[in-house]
Amino acid sequence: MSDDDTAHESAHQPASESAHGPHRHGRVTIRDVAEAAGVAPSTVSRAFARPGRVSAETTAHIRDVAQRLGYRAGTITAQTAATDGEPNGLLAIVVADLRNPVYADYTRSAQHQCLRNGYGLMVIDSEETDKLEKAALQSASRHIDGIILASSRLSDAGIRKLAEIKPLVAINRSIQGIQSVIADPTAGMEQAISRLAQLGHESLSYLAGPESSWQDGVRWRTLTAICGRHGVRVRRIGASEPTFHGGFLCGEAFVRNPTSAVLAYNDIMAIGFITSLQARRISVPGDVSVVGIDDIQLGALVTPTLSTVHLARYRAGETAVEEVLAAVRHVNDPRNRRPIMFDSHFVERDSIGIAR
């Protein structure tokens, strides 16, 4: 959010306490009014900045709720007003690393769905940094109608602030009050660990993803619970980055305290890790079984072919576009923002075998 937006937000101070007592935040924001009124934050902004673009009934309802909560509209900034003009016909998708085929798939599926709806797509590569992600969205905000965040590195609070200005959908990130679309790895991970246990594996290492990744936290908690049920010991190996190079570097820490099996945060890391083991003349799957997560095309081309957890990336990308366009067109119910979940499954290939 820009300095102007911060000033705009600060200008909205509670004029008085509501009929139900002081507001829980100490000040009332557009998001608070939107939640109480059952509409999108952009609709609240439009009701004050351009009331002619919102029905008289909805405007009256929003103003009544705002008065009850003690919300007083300040100066409408140029950026806020820009969100209330004619549609630009352009969405933005933010990805953590466009070099990773996973994000290329999200982008491709989102672009196809945009084109089917007569929209264009702007692609922003945050390079795994929240600062670049925030700065790029600030620059793009005047030109886009909505935002899709694919594995965002922004904080929950930062994402909520973005959602006050533009319709927003998060992929692979669950945030209260924000519509999300999640390719859930749970079922596939359960199948993978069950198969490894059948093959006699009693210990497993997890090659971790970025600390700022919501998905990494989910995968680690899910993995520890599954391994507990199957009697498999599990440990975590931190990685410098979720890339081929990051996975390769994990080999050094692994050989100091090896396990019979490994699950990587993603396929790219798994492939880098296998390369590291092969450079040390450690056999996969003869000595170590390796599983990735994502099911990228490259996994079926390397030697040995990579066992992995398949995620429904294309469906998730398409659905994210559908959801953000529904918000842009005001045809969805902002009070019904449950995460949309897509299941996963395990794909067994040559990189796993019987435990030694």
TrEMBL record:
Gene3D superfamilies to which the protein is assigned, alphabetical: 3.40.50.2300, lambda repressor-like DNA-binding domains (1.10.260.40)
Keyword Cytoplasm belongs to the record: no
Single GO MF descriptor: DNA-binding transcription factor activity
Coiled-coil ranges from the UniProt annotation: none
CDD domains in the cross-refs: HTH_LacI, PBP1_LacI_sugar_binding-like
Compositional bias ranges of the Basic and acidic residues kind: 1-11
Keywords assigned: DNA-binding, Transcription, Transcription regulation
Annotated segments matching region Disordered: 1-26
HTH lacI-type domain sequence ranges: 28-82
InterPro entries registered for this protein in UniProt: HTH_LacI, LacI/GalR-like_sensor, Lambda_DNA-bd_dom_sf, Peripla_BP_I
PANTHER family on file: HTH-TYPE TRANSCRIPTIONAL REGULATOR GALS (PTHR30146:SF109), LACI-RELATED TRANSCRIPTIONAL REPRESSOR (PTHR30146)
Full protein name: LacI family DNA-binding transcriptional regulator
Lineage per the UniProt record: Bacteria, Bacillati, Actinomycetota, Actinomycetes, Bifidobacteriales
